[in-house]
């Protein structure tokens, strides 16, 4: 009884401490928006720990040597995919206290800020820093809105990657070295795995991970052009091919873990690493996570999602020049570092992403990134909605809601109409 | 004239700061939100916006997602209030009967209230893991070990609205029951012992003593408890956010939907949701205020 009580108290105390530290964090962050009159450059990100923080530190060290007149002020807000940070940032922007520069996903997600008149055109900086030559043209096309560019990307990530455990696949005599030709072939492999005693061969986690899976299925089934059309209004969401693809997504969900609504992607990756699942689909930041978790190269393998072998579904973190921001010269110096070869190397070797510049030397990067850099050069580039390249925050929000509803009660017709409606809002 | 200012002047002076602050930060901002909810301010862009009347409200009440969040809130509120009142009253009754080491039990029951909702949400998010059988974790693991397999369930990931929202109410019940217990215990202690003695002398059984003498005296406390719990339930955001995250259709309540709407800078719609929430609170609070006012005038 006594032991039980003291244990309870310890637990309660620990939970209390958690609460206190959570409060402390938010206090630190709330000061971030207001930048002082000195030559501080407040950089707003959601890179608060892990490989992301290491990458940011790399950028900061380059900033320290390149921009000696300015002092870097970290204004990071922790939280998955930046959802907390975006709320804090929205408040600061609304209050007329923008940071010197802030992180935003390149592509459609920037539209929210552009429409609200909160970010400045940086097209001229591309010319000044030679970025119009250093970045591949198709990336620049993806970034351009009505002839203007509003951000400078620090990196490129790939979304459509399946991570597999070869030992598990071997049990069902599945060749782990190459991707199934299409989603149907993948479903056949999943069926084999289930027959071989793997209860939930496809590990899936909540929220955006399900969105990435449904995007990968749509991309694989519709092909790059029609897939791009889904996001810019050229492809009809109510089409029969979309129905067929969503039905395959429904089938895929039957092979997944029952706790998919309760776990995050590192847990789903953990199921693969521990042999409880054969596959998981997640962006290539998994490579950095495996490195951090000291999982040996031989213990896992990866390939583009089935049917998407020629497509590079990209997302990019980029930095902006907020309208009426404090010390724009300092912010421009930060942007110069972000776009520079040295800055991109310092950032991407640590974050597990690849540089947006096409003049980077693959030899500087680890194994996974080398293969991704080769693909980036030759593949068709398509955007991802889950990470803001293809759709706005509002659209993404509605899609996530529809997918969580689908995960609970799979009704393809309902999902299809919800997705179509989501893309009609802004 | 001069004399009258002397009587009410100092009192008014003391109240003035409170009246001004409340007037601005509560009622002024309510008015401002209401004003925003009547406009077409659907982006973060500054500048004038047009008035569209009650269009935003019309859209809200024809939107599946909002109606779903209202239904979720209704179920959550019922489960939370019933659960908390039952446990709070039960604990208060047990303590009221007298146990050795009462203060220890009191502290244990009250302790959860000291934890912030977001922290308990993180822990309960783990406890309510939906895996069952060999993979079971959290509470399901406990049931697995105790061989209480029939108790294992998917918690908030279940399909039905009742199971889902009752699972969300569970941590909230755990957190607030101690507070309700304290309220009821104070109520029991406030009843003069003479009343019990008189009832016992008159030959009332224990059951009749509670039924006819003690419980009727607790009804004002029960009503306050109902109001407090009701408005806590409407505000419940952090707990749900911590357990299920945003954009979770199954557990979305208006508070979460408002947060999501604000994230996309749809200010008019977010304000409309806020005003609807206020109206729902008013449905709870206004009868209570009317009742207290009547009680006071009767006295």
Automatic annotation (TrEMBL), chain A:
Keywords: Signal, Transport. Residues 1-22 form the signal peptide. GO terms for cellular component: cell envelope. Pfam families: SBP_bac_1 (PF01547). It is found in: Cell envelope. The keyword Repeat does not apply. Part of a binding-protein-dependent transport system for a sugar. Belongs to the bacterial solute-binding protein 1 family. This is Probable sugar-binding periplasmic protein.
TrEMBL record, chain B:
Its main location: membrane. Coiled coil: none annotated. It comes from the Bacteria. GO terms for biological process: transmembrane transport. InterPro entries: MetI-like (IPR000515), MetI-like_sf (IPR035906), UgpAE/MalFG_permease (IPR050809). GO terms for cellular component: plasma membrane. Residues 70-290 form the ABC transmembrane type-1 domain. It is a multi-pass membrane protein. Keywords: Cell membrane, Membrane, Transmembrane, Transmembrane helix, Transport. The chain crosses the membrane at residues 12-34, 73-95, 107-127, 165-188, 209-232, 270-291. It is found in: Cell membrane. Belongs to the binding-protein-dependent transport system permease family. This is Carbohydrate ABC transporter membrane protein 1 (CUT1 family).
């Amino acid at each position: 009884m006594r032991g039980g009580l003291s244990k309870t108290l310890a637990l309660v105390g620990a939970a209390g401490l958690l609460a206190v530290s959570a409060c402390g964090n938010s206090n630190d962050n709330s000061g971030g928006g207001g930048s002082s009159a000195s030559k501080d450059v407040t950089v707003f990100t959601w890179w608060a720990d892990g490989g992301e923080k290491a990458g940011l530190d790399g950028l900061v060290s380059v900033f320290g040597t390149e921009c000696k007149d300015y002092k870097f002020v970290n204004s990071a807000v922790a939280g998955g995919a930046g959802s907390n940070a975006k709320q804090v940032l929205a408040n600061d922007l609304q209050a007329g206290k923008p940071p010197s520069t802030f992180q935003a996903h390149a592509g459609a997600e920037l539209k929210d800020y552009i429409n609200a008149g909160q970010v400045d055109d940086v097209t001229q900086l591309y010319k000044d820093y030679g970025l119009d030559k250093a970045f591949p043209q198709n990336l620049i096309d993806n970034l351009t809105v009505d002839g203007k560019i509003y951000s400078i990307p620090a990196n490129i990530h790939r979304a459509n990657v399946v991570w597999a455990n070869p030992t598990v696949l071997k049990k069902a005599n599945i060749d782990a070295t190459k991707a199934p030709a299409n989603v149907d072939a993948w479903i056949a492999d999943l069926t084999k795995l289930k027959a071989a005693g793997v209860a939930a061969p496809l590990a899936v986690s909540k929220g955006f991970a399900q969105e990435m899976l449904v995007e990968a299925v749509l991309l694989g089934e519709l092909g790059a052009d029609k897939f791009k059309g889904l996001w810019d209004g050229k492809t009809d969401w109510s089409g029969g091919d979309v129905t067929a693809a969503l039905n395959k997504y429904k089938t895929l969900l039957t092979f997944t873990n029952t706790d998919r609504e309760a776990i995050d992607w590192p847990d789903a990756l953990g199921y693969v690493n521990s042999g409880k699942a054969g596959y998981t689909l997640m962006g290539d930041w998994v490579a950095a996570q495996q490195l951090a978790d000291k999982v040996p190269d031989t213990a896992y393998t990866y390939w583009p999602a089935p049917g998407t072998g020629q497509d590079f579904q990209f997302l990019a973190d980029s930095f902006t020049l907020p309208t009426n921001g404090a010390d724009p010269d300092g912010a421009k110096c930060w942007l110069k570092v972000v776009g520079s070869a040295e800055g991109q190397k310092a950032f991407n070797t640590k974050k597990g992403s690849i540089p947006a510049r096409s003049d980077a030397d693959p030899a500087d990067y680890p194994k996974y990134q080398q293969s991704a850099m080769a693909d980036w050069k030759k593949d068709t580039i398509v955007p991802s909605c889950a990470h803001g390249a293809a759709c706005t925050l509002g659209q993404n929000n509605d899609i996530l809601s529809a997918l969580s509803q689908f995960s609970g009660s799979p009704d393809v017709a309902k999902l299809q109409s919800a997705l179509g409606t989501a893309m009609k809002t802004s | 004239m001069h004399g009258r200012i002397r009587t009410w002047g100092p009192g008014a002076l003391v109240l003035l700061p409170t009246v001004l602050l409340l007037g601005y930060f509560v009622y002024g901002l309510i008015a401002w939100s209401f004003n925003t909810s009547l406009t077409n301010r659907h982006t973060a862009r500054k500048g004038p916006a047009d008035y569209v009347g009650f269009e935003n409200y019309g859209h809200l009440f024809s939107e599946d997602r909002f109606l779903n969040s209202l239904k979720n809130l209704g179920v959550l509120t019922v489960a939370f209030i019933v659960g908390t009142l039952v446990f709070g009253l039960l604990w208060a009754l047990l303590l009221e009967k007298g146990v050795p080491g009462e203060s220890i039990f009191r502290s244990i029951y009250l302790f959860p209230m000291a934890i912030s909702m977001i922290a308990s949400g993180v822990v309960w998010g783990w406890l309510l893991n939906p895996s069952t059988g060999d993979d079971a974790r959290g509470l399901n693991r406990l049931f697995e070990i105790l061989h209480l397999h029939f108790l294992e369930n998917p918690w908030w990931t279940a399909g039905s609205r009742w199971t889902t929202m009752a699972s969300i109410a569970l941590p909230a019940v755990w957190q607030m029951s101690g507070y309700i217990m304290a309220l009821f215990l104070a109520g029991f202690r406030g009843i003069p012992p003479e009343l019990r003695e008189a009832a016992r002398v008159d030959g009332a059984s224990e059951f009749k003593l509670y039924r006819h003498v003690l419980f009727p005296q607790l009804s004002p406390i029960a009503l306050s408890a109902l109001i407090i719990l009701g408005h806590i339930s409407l505000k419940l955001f952090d707990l749900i956010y911590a357990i299920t995250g945003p954009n979770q259709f199954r557990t979305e309540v208006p508070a979460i939907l408002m947060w999501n709407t604000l994230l996309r800078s749809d200010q008019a719609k977010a304000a409309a949701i806020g005003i609807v929430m206020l109206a729902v609170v008013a449905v709870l609070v206004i009868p209570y205020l009317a009742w207290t006012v009547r009680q006071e005038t009767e006295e």
